[in-house]
Amino acid sequence: MKRFEKHVFICNNSRPAGHPRGCCFDKGSKELIDEFKKKVAAAGLNKIIRVNLSGCLDACEKGIAMVVYPEQVWYGNVKLEDIDEIIQSHLINDKPVERLELNEQDFKNEK
Ligand code: FES
Description:
Bound molecules: FE2/S2 (inorganic) cluster
CATH architecture: 3-Layer(aba) Sandwich
Number of strands: 4
Strand order of the largest sheet: 2-1-3-4
Distance between the termini: 35 Å
Largest sheet: 4 strands, mixed
CATH topology: Glutaredoxin
């Protein structure tokens, strides 16, 4: 069964102050998620695109982290001002925002 064309997961993980990996929550993930959901709804996309908060995506040092399925495009250092571009370019026009993409190297550094 196919319910959504795309699924957006945005990390909202929170860690205790001083944790070496930090966390997306402390970088403002809750506000980002709320704003992202609002903008997806305002664009009339919420029937085909689902935005969910997630636990840690293991890209903490690059947070705020998010991933878009089914294409598995990972983004890091996402900020409020990036939302419109991600929605317009990636979610609507299927053109990922390269400047925000995480690659294999970003994850290797964290292991
Ligand atoms: S805390 Fe957000 S990716 Fe780990």
